[in-house]
Each structure stands twice: as structure tokens, then as C-alpha cells.
């Protein structure tokens, strides 16, 4: 049902349109399960394309913003995946009807997730809506997602995502102004009068503000000099949004040849590939580096917040080691050299490698649940400058999102400063701190009931009333024995706002500090993803050059034995190993 609508379609350029438009109220019903996860709401694209589905979630988001929405400025953009432009159009029309004063949209709707955070902070916006399912596949049969970021540029905290979810359960109508039409392929101002209020849509260059920020953090001339020396690099955007950023920075700013950037044309289906920068989904980059021609390679995910780093001959840098190397070599990054490193932080499943750097340098290191939003409070309070996740996410307090391009520029700064190869830097790092051998096994699209049953059994094992039978148990595989010292379901109390996050991952910790962790992922669009994390610290230089999967094999077998993962899921092997 509709209350009706009247509007004037202006024939002049958009910036000249001042005639009044009126919004309408559309009756709707709640859709079950519109609960945002750690990175917004992600579902199959076909679900978002259902009549009223996207509108319901957008209206619920606006309702959660509350009084701040009227007269607000919001930043809108996404990774270029299928349905993004249609979603932008819906949001524009609904923002106009809901009293938003100004929208800032990336040209063609494109903004990397880090760039949205950057623009929110630079333009002092109320918040932003990011249209992405991150590293999930795109296209008509792929995934789509909507995420709200707040004024600090970071993902909405749980109090806001909970409000959004509550609104989705009771929504009965949404507001929209169908007369607002904007050509997002052209930069410039588009002015409207909606319900007697001014409404402006500003379409801006997707890259400009972000590049300015990077130039404030890094020494671009020094990086350019290094890159135009003996080293040859390759950047793989995986047909995601980072293509437009890579071309501007690496080709135009640094003057590298065109073949330095591959898969840099954003595509709605990411070229038919899975835009997840890891050894499973970026085999072409690995194969290219193994040829020994390039000394450095990097890949980004769909929305540009994740990164994978490779050295010559395909030398793989785990995300856990990557953030640790950055922390140990912060003096090579001008931003940190000037401002210092206030503190470090990692997600709970991430290996303890960062903790060892923090201890050596006398810096605080915070362990938080998975989800970048947990780093935000620490950064806003001035307690953390650098943080990272094992899921290929690294960043600093320059914005409030993980930042793939920032991580690559940080690595290039370290390479230029140390004048060593990627492998040489890692070997020196391990000689100083020891090596945390780490792996993550992902079991994707597991039947939800089977995944939940497995986790329920583990929670029974670690229940406080029954751990006496579990703690102290010894497990042996291939001659290596481990004794359980502690087991719990990770709980985090935020030191800033004292909010409590419970059930953040089952931890089984051995007497030598080695850890087995199980989590159900909050980023899947269907089914359930079981993540198994293995972290084993070894201070033996003779092992440092060995493959993590080989070294960790006995411990992995113990993890499978304890969890009975194969028995519950019927899976003989994981979908992805990182």
C-alpha cells in the first residue's frame, strides 16, 4: 500500500533541480532473520532482490540511527558487485524520504571499505552504508551485504546492530521518494527539495581522499624510488573495488608498468572467482610469484580491507606474522615514527606472535573478539595504534577499518628501509622472537544443525562444572604429546565502555601455551562455516623454514580428535586452508 506521491521531474541539470518532491510511505512486513553479523547483513543476492527486503533493512538501519538521522550526512559506496547500483538507488531514495541532508557517494557507487571509513572521518559524516559481502563471491547467484558504519568510521557496535535487528522484527512501513534520480557515473552536486527540506547527493572521485590520506602516512617518493629499482612487484585486485585504487597508486603515483597490476577491472561477479586473498582462491598470484621474477606480490579481497603478502618464489607471509613484522619494524613507517605506537591488538584466534613483539618492546597488547569493531573503542581511546586479524586483515588508527592497501604500503616501506627480501625479513624476525606456527581450517556450508551440535558438545566439555574431567588430559599424535591446561568460551569485557561479549570462541589451551580454537563464522550467507585455528609456538631455528602444515600435523590431528569434527560434519577435509 502507498499513501501516494507527487513530484516534479526536473529537465535541467541535477544541480539545478529545486522543485519540491514528496515522499511516500509503503506498507511492508518483517522478514525473518535480518540479523547483522560481525560485518553487517550478508545473504544471497536473490534474497536481497526480493520486494521490500532491502528496503526493510535500510529503513531499520535508519530507525536505529534515530534522532541523528535528520539533517545528517551519510557516505554510501560498495565493492562493485552485482546489485550494488540498484541498492545505491534504493538508499538514495530512502535517505531523501527519511530526512537525511546530504549523501556522499563514490563515482559509479565504488568505495573500498577503508575508503568509506576515511571519507566518513574526513567529512565528519554521521555514518556510512557499505554495500559489500567482502570476500564472498558475487554475481546473480553470489552474495550481497549491507553494513552500517558510525561517525568514527568503524563498524556499528553491537548496541546499534541489535537495535537494527529489533526494528527488522517489527517493521510495518518504510519511507521512499521515487522522484530522486541521480547519475552516479558523473561527479558533482545533485540538489533536491524533498518534503520541504533540502537534500544533496554529492558524487565524488572514489579514490582521491584515500590517496591523500596514504600520502600523509607513507613516504611516497621513497617507495617510488624503491619500486623503480631492482625489484619487480605485482598487485592482484581480484576484480574487486581495489582495481581503481591500485591503478591510481601503483601505476600513476609510483609510475610502475601496466603489468604490475592484474585483475584490476572491477566486475560484478569478480570475474567468476572468489575474491578472497588466500592461497586457495588466489592460486594465479602464487603461481606467478613462484616463477621467481617478482620479489613482492599482494592480493586484495572484494572490498579492499583484506590483503595477502607473498615474497619471491611464492614465499607466504601469514597474516599473524605480517602484523607482527609491522609492529617490530614500525620505525620504517613515517606515521608511526612521528606518532609512536601507543599499543597493539589482535583478535583472539590470531596467533600470539604479536604478543611477543609487544612484550619485547614494552607495549600493551590487547586480545579482542573477532570483528574489527572491537578495535575501534581501543583506538578511539588512544590505546592502540596497530592491530590485526588472522583473516588477512591489518590496519592502524588512521581509520577504523582494516585496510589492505595500507598494509601493502607498510610492507613496501619496510622493504625499502631494511633493504632485504620478504623472506629475509621473516627469517630475521623468527630468529629474534621465535615462530608461532599457525593455520586455520575452514569448513564452509556445513549443515547448521550439525555445526551447532559439534559446538554444543565442545561447550559441554569445557563447562565449568565438568572441566575436571577435561583439564589435565593428555593427547598424543606422531610422538608429540600435549596436555590440556585450560579450556573456556572466550569472553571479552571492553576496557573502555565495559560492555561484555560472550561465547566468542572455544579455546583449548595446552600446558606449553599452544592453542586450539573453534568458532562458527558470522560472515557466511548460507549454512554454517566452522573455523578451526591451530597456534603452536616453537623456538627452534631448525624448524623456521618448514611448512606450517607439516609442523602442525600432529596438533591438527589432536584438534580433530577432541572436536570429533569429522564425525559431526561428515567432512574428510576442509574447504579452505590458510
Description:
The protein is built from 18 helices and 28 strands. Helix 2 packs across helix 3 (84-97), helix 7 (220-227) crosses helix 14 (404-418) and helix 10 packs parallel to helix 12 (353-361). Helix 12 (353-361) links the parallel strand 16 (344-347) and strand 17 (365-368). With 578 residues, the protein is of the alpha/beta class. The strands form six sheets. It has an eight-stranded mixed β-sheet, with helices on both faces. A seven-stranded antiparallel β-sheet has the order 21-22-25-26-27-20-28. It has a five-stranded mixed β-sheet with strand order 12-11-13-14-15, sandwiched between helices.
Q: What form results from the Cα inertia axes?
A: globular
**Percent helix among the residues?**
25-40%
Distance between the termini: 50 Å
pLDDT < 50 stretches:
1-18
Q: Largest sheet, if any?
A: 8 strands, mixed
Report mean pLDDT, rounded to a whole number.
Answer: 93
SS-based class: alpha/beta
Question: Would you count the extended β strands for me?
Answer: 28
Q: Oligomerization state of this entry?
A: single chain
Amino acid at each position: 500500500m502507498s499513501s501516494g506521491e507527487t513530484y516534479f521531474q526536473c529537465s535541467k541539470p541535477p544541480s539545478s533541480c529545486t522543485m519540491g518532491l514528496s515522499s511516500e510511505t509503503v506498507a511492508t512486513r518483517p522478514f525473518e532473520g535480518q540479523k547483522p553479523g560481525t560485518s553487517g547483513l550478508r545473504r544471497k543476492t536473490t534474497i536481497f532482490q526480493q520486494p521490500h527486503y532491502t528496503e526493510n533493512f535500510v529503513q531499520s538501519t535508519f530507525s536505529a540511527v534515530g534522532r541523528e538521522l535528520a539533517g545528517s550526512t551519510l557516505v554510501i559506496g560498495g565493492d562493485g558487485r552485482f546489485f550494488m547500483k540498484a541498492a545505491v538507488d534504493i538508499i538514495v531514495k530512502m535517505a531523501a524520504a527519511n530526512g537525511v541532508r546530504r549523501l556522499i557517494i563514490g563515482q559509479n557507487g565504488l568505495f573500498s571499505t577503508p575508503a568509506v571509513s576515511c571519507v566518513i572521518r574526513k567529512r565528519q559524516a554521521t555514518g556510512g552504508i557499505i554495500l559489500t559481502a567482502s570476500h564472498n563471491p558475487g554475481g546473480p547467484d553470489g552474495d550481497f551485504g549491507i553494513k552500517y558504519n558510525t561517525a568514527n568510521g568503524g563498524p556499528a557496535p553491537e548496541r546499534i546492530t541489535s537495535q537494527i535487528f529489533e526494528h527488522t522484527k517489527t517493521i510495518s512501513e518504510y519511507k521512499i521518494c521515487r522522484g530522486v534520480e541521480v547519475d552516479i557515473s558523473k561527479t558533482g552536486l545533485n540538489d533536491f527539495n524533498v518534503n520541504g527540506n533540502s537534500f544533496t547527493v554529492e558524487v565524488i572521485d572514489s579514490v582521491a581522499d584515500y590517496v591523500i590520506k596514504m600520502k600523509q602516512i607513507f613516504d611516497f617518493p621513497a617507495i617510488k624510488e624503491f619500486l623503480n629499482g631492482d625489484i619487480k612487484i605485482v598487485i592482484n585486485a581480484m576484480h574487486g573495488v581495489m582495481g581503481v585504487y591500485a591503478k591510481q597508486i601503483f601505476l600513476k603515483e609510483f609510475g610502475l608498468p601496466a603489468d604490475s597490476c592484474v585483475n584490476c577491472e572491477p566486475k560484478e561477479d569478480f570475474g567468476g572467482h572468489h575474491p578472497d586473498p588466500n592461497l586457495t582462491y588466489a592460486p594465479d598470484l602464487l603461481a606467478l610469484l613462484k616463477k621467481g621474477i617478482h620479489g613482492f606480490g599482494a592480493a586484495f579481497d572484494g572490498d579492499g580491507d583484506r590483503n595477502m603478502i607473498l615474497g619471491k618464489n611464492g614465499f607466504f607471509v601469514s597474516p599473524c606474522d605480517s602484523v607482527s613484522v609491522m609492529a617490530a619494524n614500525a620505525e620504517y613507517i613515517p606515521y608511526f615514527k612521528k606518532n609512536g605506537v601507543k599499543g597493539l591488538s589482535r583478535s583472539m584466534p590470531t596467533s600470539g606472535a604479536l604478543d611477543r613483539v609487544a612484550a619485547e618492546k614494552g607495549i600493551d597488547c590487547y586480545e579482542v573478539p573477532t570483528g574489527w569493531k572491537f578495535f575501534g573503542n581501543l583506538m578511539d581511546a588512544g590505546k592502540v595504534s596497530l592491530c590485526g586479524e588472522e583473516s588477512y586483515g591489518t590496519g592502524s588508527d588512521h581509520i577504523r577499518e582494516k585496510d589492505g592497501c595500507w598494509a601493502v604500503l607498510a610492507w613496501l616501506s619496510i622493504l625499502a628501509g631494511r633493504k632485504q627480501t620478504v623472506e629475509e625479513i621473516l627469517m630475521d624476525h623468527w630468529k629474534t622472537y621465535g615462530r608461532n606456527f599457525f593455520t586455520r581450517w575452514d569448513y564452509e556450508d556445513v549443515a547448521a544443525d550439525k555445526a551447532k551440535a559439534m559446538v554444543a558438545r565442545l561447550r559441554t566439555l569445557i563447562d565449568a562444572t565438568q572441566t575436571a574431567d577435561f583439564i589435565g588430559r593428555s593427547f598424543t599424535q606422531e610422538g608429540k604429546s600435549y596436555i590440556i591446561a585450560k579450556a573456556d568460551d572466550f569472553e571479552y569485557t571492553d576496557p573502555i565502555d565495559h560492555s561484555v561479549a560472550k561465547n566468542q570462541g572455544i579455546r583449548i589451551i595446552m600446558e606449553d601455551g599452544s592453542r586450539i580454537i573453534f568458532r562458527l563464522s558470522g560472515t557466511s550467507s548460507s549454512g554454517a562455516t566452522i573455523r578451526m585455528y591451530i597456534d603452536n609456538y616453537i623456538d627452534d631455528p631448525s624448524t623456521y623454514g618448514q611448512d606450517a602444515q607439516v609442523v602442525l600435523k600432529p596438533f591438527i590431528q589432536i584438534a580433530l580428535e577432541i572436536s570429533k569434527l569429522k564425525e559431526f560434519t561428515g567432512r574428510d577435509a576442509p574447504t579452505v586452508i590458510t
